[in-house]
Design a protein that fits this description.
Distance between the termini: 41 Å
Largest sheet: 2 strands, antiparallel
Oligomer: single chain
Structural class: mainly alpha
Number of helices: 4
């Protein structure tokens, strides 16, 4: 059975808070078998991580939300960090153009 869900637009430009996310967003993301996250690049905090992260990486969404960038950095191999930073900087530059 095909089910359609309308997701109204939302923005975190003014208030990056999970309370601003429409409930339909969670209905969709909790059914996706891949990681979906909302990350505040200014603070290094995860606002939201879907449930699939538990099956993918073995960690609970709350681990990312509570630990933020420091938690994620602890999962990376030191040799991978420069390339990840480089790719992240490219993505940020493209997003801001």
């Amino acid at each position: 059975m095909l089910q359609q869900t309308y997701l109204p637009p939302f923005s975190f430009n003014e208030n990056p808070n999970i309370a601003n996310i429409p409930r339909e967003f969670f209905y969709i993301t909790d059914r996706v078998p891949g990681m979906i996250a909302i990350y505040n690049i200014n603070t290094g905090n995860y606002i939201y991580v879907n449930k699939a992260i538990k099956q993918i990486l073995g960690y609970n969404p709350q681990d990312f939300i509570q630990g933020g960038l420091h938690f994620v950095a602890s999962l990376l191999h030191p040799d991978d960090v420069p390339e990840i930073i480089r790719k992240n900087n490219i993505a940020l530059k493209e997003a801001n153009n």
